[in-house]
Structures are given as structure tokens and as C-alpha cells.
């Protein structure tokens, strides 16, 4: 039995001051299409821009619903609109972050707010030993999010970007449980209550 799957199933929703992280459903398709169809958002993720709403619905049905334990929609509390997605993929005692955010919400500190909740959950509840993340090197805003949640850059490598059939530079980031606990002890993180 995989205890992390049980724990993930018991934590379907998280809340912050401005956000709710919750499971994606087909009812979220129009909100998600707003950012999955944006070429500027798609520039930084692994999928091409969605050309129509049916592609977004297909993604929800064939990816988000079957993989719901490790994926959450990011909902703006003020509007109840899904403005992005965030994932914490678990393998053994490590986790990997992934996210996408509607461009209209960039630069407002929302992604660090969402990622901090999952960072705290990963180390305090799931008891993971490390969280890693990567981003295309040209996407420095994503690197800034990783830095804001306490991660540090551990390297840069060439990766193959299938959707554009070319190699790109990617930055890799990590935060260990020991580093996290030291920062908490030193008062450098306010533990989220999500």
C-alpha cells in the first residue's frame, strides 16, 4: 500500500488568503481554456496552445481526472475562477512541482502562495525528503517562484522540447526537507495553514 496516495486523497482542497486549490472537473473547462489557449502561457509548458475548448475538455478527462491525486486547480477566491493548475508529483520520498497560470494573474504573487501550501504539505504531512522543479531557462519568472518558496538552483541542462522539436536549456531547482526544517526553525517561512 502506498501511504502517500492515501494522504493525497485525504487532502483534496487547500486554502490560502487569496486562493483555493481544489480538484479539476469538466465544469472548469472554459476557465482553463482561457490560459491553455494562450500562446504565451503555452510557451513555458509541455503542451501546445489549445486550439479549441474540446482539446481542454479532453485534457481534463484524460489527464486531470485520472491523475487527480497529484493535481489541483488554482481558484481565485474573489471570482471563483480557475486561474491555473499546480501539481505535486510524488515518486518515492521525493516530489516534483509543475504549474501553469493564466497570464492575467502573473506578477501578483499567486503562484508562490499556491506553491508554498504544497511545499508545507509535502514536508510536514507527506514527509518527503526533497522537492524538485524545473523550468525552461527563458522563463525566469518561474525560477523566481521557485526561489520565493525556498528552492535553490542546482543546475542547468539541455532538454528536448517535443512540442517544438528542439533542445532548450532548463534550470533545475531543489529544496530538501532538512533545508526546509532549518528555515522553519529560523523563522524564515510562515507555515501555511492550507
Automatic annotation (TrEMBL):
It comes from the Bacteria. Residues 19-178 form the N-acetyltransferase domain. GO terms for molecular function: protein-N-terminal-alanine acetyltransferase activity. SUPFAM superfamilies: Acyl-CoA N-acyltransferases (Nat). The keyword Acyltransferase applies. Pfam families: Acetyltransf_3 (PF13302). Keywords: Acyltransferase, Transferase. GO terms for cellular component: cytoplasm. InterPro entries: Acyl_CoA_acyltransferase, GNAT_dom, N-acetyltransferase. Belongs to the acetyltransferase family. RimJ subfamily. This is N-acetyltransferase.
Amino acid at each position: 500500500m502506498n501511504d502517500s496516495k492515501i494522504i493525497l486523497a485525504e487532502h483534496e482542497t487547500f486554502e490560502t488568503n487569496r486562493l483555493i486549490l481544489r480538484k479539476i472537473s469538466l465544469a472548469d473547462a472554459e476557465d482553463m481554456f482561457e490560459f491553455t489557449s494562450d500562446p504565451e502561457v503555452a510557451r513555458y509548458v509541455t503542451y501546445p496552445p489549445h486550439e479549441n475548448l474540446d482539446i481542454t475538455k479532453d485534457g481534463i478527462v484524460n489527464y486531470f481526472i485520472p491523475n487527480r491525486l497529484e493535481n489541483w486547480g488554482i481558484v481565485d477566491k474573489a471570482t471563483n475562477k480557475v486561474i491555473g493548475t499546480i501539481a505535486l508529483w510524488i515518486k518515492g520520498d521525493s516530489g516534483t512541482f509543475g504549474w501553469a497560470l493564466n497570464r492575467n494573474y502573473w506578477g501578483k504573487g499567486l503562484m508562490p502562495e499556491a506553491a508554498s501550501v504544497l511545499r508545507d504539505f509535502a514536508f510536514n504531512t507527506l514527509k518527503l525528503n526533497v522537492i524538485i522543479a524545473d523550468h525552461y531557462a527563458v522563463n525566469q519568472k518561474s525560477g523566481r517562484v521557485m526561489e520565493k518558496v525556498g528552492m535553490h538552483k542546482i543546475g542547468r541542462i539541455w532538454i528536448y522540447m517535443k512540442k517544438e522539436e528542439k533542445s532548450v536549456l532548463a534550470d533545475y531547482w531543489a529544496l530538501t526537507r532538512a533545508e526546509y526544517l532549518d528555515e522553519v526553525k529560523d523563522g524564515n517561512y510562515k507555515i501555511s495553514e492550507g
